[in-house]
Amino acid sequence: MKKTKRIVALLLAAVLAVGCLGFAAYAADGADLPTVVFDAQTKEFRFENCGPNGTDLFRDFKNAMPGDNLVQHIRVKVENAGLDTVKIMLRSGESNADYATLLGMKVQSDGSWVRDDSIEHPATLTAVIPQLSGETITVTDWFKDKIKGVLNLKDQTIDPYLYSGTLAEGVYLGAYSESSQQDITVTLAIPKSAGNELQGLTATVDWIFTAEVIPYNPPTPDIPDEPTPSLDTVNHYAYIIGRKDGLVHPEAPITRAEVATIFFRMLTDESREQLWSQSNPYADVAPNMWCNAAVSTMTVGGIVQGYPDGSFRPRANITRAEFAAMAVRFFDVEYDGPDLFSDTTGHWASDLINKAASAGIILGFKDGTFRPDQDITRAEAIAIFNRVLGRAPDKDHLLPDMITWPDNMDTDAWYYANMQEATNSHDYDRVKAADGTEYEVWTKILPVRDWAAFETEWATAGSAKNPGDVYSSQP
Fold it and tell me: Mean pLDDT across the stretch 212-221?
């Protein structure tokens, strides 16, 4: 069943006419902190400590200069949510041509908006949510790129959760249940590169708060709500690509979000249509997060699960046990025998690990262990992906015009053929060897699928055409 978003109500937050952009200072004791309140029963927002008529949420939102990173502290409060999950977003709304410049856009003579390539980076919003999770996050170069210069962090560890987006995309302000609140730091960044474009700018900005209400669905393991996901075992698309450094990193770890995304990519179109969702109950998977559709869809399909604290931890490295648990859920496997590895007895995933091993999906180590809590490497994960997909690459039956990687040139490495399988789209024939095993003989290299465009197309097809500012994820 395709998931759609049902519009409940529409709220346009404070409309502010400004010269350039800025944020106010934080009240020392928090008593006068501008507060956005969403009542989950009435589906309405209200504003407290925001001046006359609730229009002064961003009290000094003016007189910013290119290169400024200006801060506003606000409080977000949700009331009467019960066991439902409410996700709050903040974005800017369309206004005048000067506002388009802030977005890195320009208005054409017919009134349409197009990207303005002369503006290197549009203004961005970043939100830090200190109480969203106690998990420590490493800010890698990849994540730093997403921040667009708001913070000068590189390979440092920070405790708060941090989200970023352009003014039009919006920024995630957290997930809430029952009656709860969080104090949030919002930063507006205006790049120095926008200096000439912003000179003399007078922009009108409409600030819009969005609440997504996700109804609580108690687990019913014996009565699945959705069909079991089906994988595409026919088309051999490449499902990973190398990183910016031109390497494929077989020995590096892989994250929970990356694994969910690969499984999402490998679904049949029919299964993806049935399970499609862009809503999930996890506090740390924002509606505008790059992996949101994949995590949401695979959650509906019962393949991925979160943690008892309500998080998914998308940036965390996935363990061998977590990966085995995801992989075996695609299969109807029964196993009632003893534990197949010496170190899995009493482990939370022991039953799933035994099932995966009995089905030939996973392998242990020579010493008889599985090492369930060890981070799985990209090469180990890809070998399992290939087995789950029924792929059987053979290093002696690939093609000379395939994509190759400087760190995967050793044809004697145990993972060589598996890495090539995962990074090259190809046609193939299946051949049975004398011992009865089957392997692939590649016949043609195909273009690598543009997964970003593909997933954008699915997101557009699976979303409501006119989502409002308060909506439900019920089908």
Answer: 71
- DSSP letter at 447 equals P
DSSP-derived letter for residue 289 is S
Distances from the Cα of 134 to the Cα of 160, 175, 314, angstroms:
8, 14, 14
Residue partners of 155: CB distance under 8 A and separation at least 6: 138, 139, 140, 141
Cβ-contact 173, 89 below 8 angstroms:
yes
E strands in 324-466: 425-432, 438-446
What's the pTM?
0.72
Q: What is the pLDDT of residue 24?
A: 26
CA nearest 91: which of 194, 200, 186, 220? 186
Q: Retrieve residue 27's tokens.
A: 């009240």
3-state SS, residue 452: helix
pLDDT digits (tens, 9 = 90+) for 36-55: 889 988 888 888 887 665 55
Q: Give the Cα separation of 240 and 418 in Å (integer).
A: 12
Pairing state of beta strands 85-93 and 124-129?
unpaired
Can you tell me which residue has the tokens 């035994």? Answer: 354
β-pair type (171-176, 105-107): unpaired
Give the separation between CA 454 and CA 258, rounded to whole angstroms: 16
Higher per-residue pLDDT: 111 or 346: 346
How far apart, in whole angstroms, are the C-alpha atoms of residue 301 and residue 14?
39
Contacts of residue 334, Cβ cutoff 8 Å, sequence gap at least 6: 355
* Lowest-pLDDT range of 20-24, 208-212, 276-280, 319-323: 20-24
- Max CA separation in the chain (angstroms): 83
